[in-house]
């Protein structure tokens, strides 16, 4: 019953939102598209919002209508039951997307499907009444199972039409020949159902199916769309490959008005998942009078590296590339398709910003290039970042440079370099050994090859831009500052300083002085056009900077917190003019679902402290299910919900593009550009799947802010140059001692040979 109640609640929202969407849609100015009709591409919701809810469930269809354009088309994979009822179910066999195996454990059969013996629980073995006991569940195991216990029933075409009243309905007939072999007629069912249900599109990958239904619907009947499968597959009724049929579009035009093709038919990929030049299919089909619909869009699958894990970029490459536009997209996440069509298409890079917040890079565009390299920073600037950042590290010879980690093993290929034996133990920094920046000279560090960050490679096998995984070079702080100074679009730089106390006490390195000197040497002390922000998790560092300069200081709260005391805010205001917090300190997350919203942003902003939030990434696995595997939905929810002042992101392009989307200029909130309701999706989770409550996050207090002053710089004994014996400073590790011993032996041998000469 919970699933039915949730559906009813969602349906009420659907009605209200759709009325609003229709009004707004009527007021929208018409834009010329390079589609066959000149109108915007269709958004087709495959099984409803099947990227989140079980495919073809009422909630999936409800939610698709709630979050999509007003004229979204609902897609139904049409199957027939034993008694000839037409149901919406994603496949011919039922075990993958329902609990039929549990309900009817002895219901398995084996039938030939396109000549291949196929075992499974087939719809033709069950009456419609028998299927009332079967519930829909997720069909793709990588998606959430939290809605599987809602008892979603299998619906008929008539039920979908009655409950949803969709603006468009698409019936896909995948296996007409199979049903005909079992004395079930798809064509008869379609002719019958269209007497009471308006069907807008009928698709099938079988040529003979269209020959059977030709002329049986009249001039006002549905549009026929021929569905192409993979090019090497054989069309079952002509024994020709789909690739060969593709070469004769005039033949397709004799029985269909459109084609539905996989994405690779239009934008093929190479074996490394990079885009190849587009084919001429869309233009060729349009010349033949055929509309082109494209299937396979989903936010939670790997897409071409060219898109930087951004599904909006993928949609736009099919519909707004300057050369052609497909006529429709078949999507598991229709909210993203809708926003791509209505909000982000035909928007120039220099378009007016519709919302004001800072786009701050995280180690440059580190989602596309190795972080803190010249290429990462240049891309961040070109992508529209307002502020680029440098996490300052110190070399052993006192050179400040940019690196996301003090351990070079995390950011470079040092482990594969001649310097791989320079590993040391520094308990004050890490419990594991590392090759630390302060153990190498700047010339040595410059020889290292940078490495791109891959935070989701081990668990999810997701890799960032492999062609550029070792591209670029590390920059000194001065080089970084000069790069930023020469930009005409940046408004500022953010310099992050950590481990200052350790570097002063143990390494004799004053990172505060090094940063101030670099700013002075590069002319920033007298500049008023480029804002300088100094960030640290240590209040003592910011106090030190504040004493010696007028630069803006930013306090970073490392902990995930649920609240912050007034006394802590007052302490922060003494040394900082802005605050950085983590995403979960705004929207707490449990088991992949947002549980609510804190008031941390509101409290800080009331005290005149801007709030910047990190870390925004494009990979869908970095986001709670509430954001629908779409980085743009996530950004929108933080900006239009709690109203943060800036995003700190590894993918600046996505955040910068979001500010220009024209839907933000609407007087009304469009359904596909509305912020998520914190905790709302958790309300639809089946009772048995609700994650257990976790211990609440801590409250941030003034005790968390207060720190002793930075210690004075303690002079470090000079490090011996290679080949010179040391009598004062012990080697940092046994490995280093061995290296020195070998060098001394070689030196002695060379000296002896010279004396013999």
From TrEMBL:
The answer to whether UniProt assigns keyword Transmembrane helix to this entry is: no
Extract the Pfam families matched here: GDPD
| Occurrences of domain GP-PDE (ranges) | 41-341, 357-659
Task: List UniProt keywords, sorted A-Z.
Answer: Glycerol metabolism, Glycoprotein, Hydrolase, Signal
Signal sequence segment = 1-26
Keyword Glycoprotein applies: yes
Coiled coil segments of this chain: none
Enzyme Commission (EC) number: 3.1.4.46
Q: What is the lineage of its organism?
A: Eukaryota, Viridiplantae, Streptophyta, Embryophyta, Tracheophyta
Bias regions of kind Low complexity — which residues?
A: 713-734
Q: Which GO terms describe its biological process?
A: glycerol metabolic process; lipid metabolic process
Task: Give the region (Disordered) as residue ranges.
Answer: 701-734
Tell me the PROSITE patterns matching this sequence: GP_PDE
UniProt family annotation: Belongs to the glycerophosphoryl diester phosphodiesterase family.
Reaction catalysis annotation = a sn-glycero-3-phosphodiester + H2O = an alcohol + sn-glycerol 3-phosphate + H(+)
Know the name of this protein? glycerophosphodiester phosphodiesterase
* GO molecular function annotation: glycerophosphodiester phosphodiesterase activity
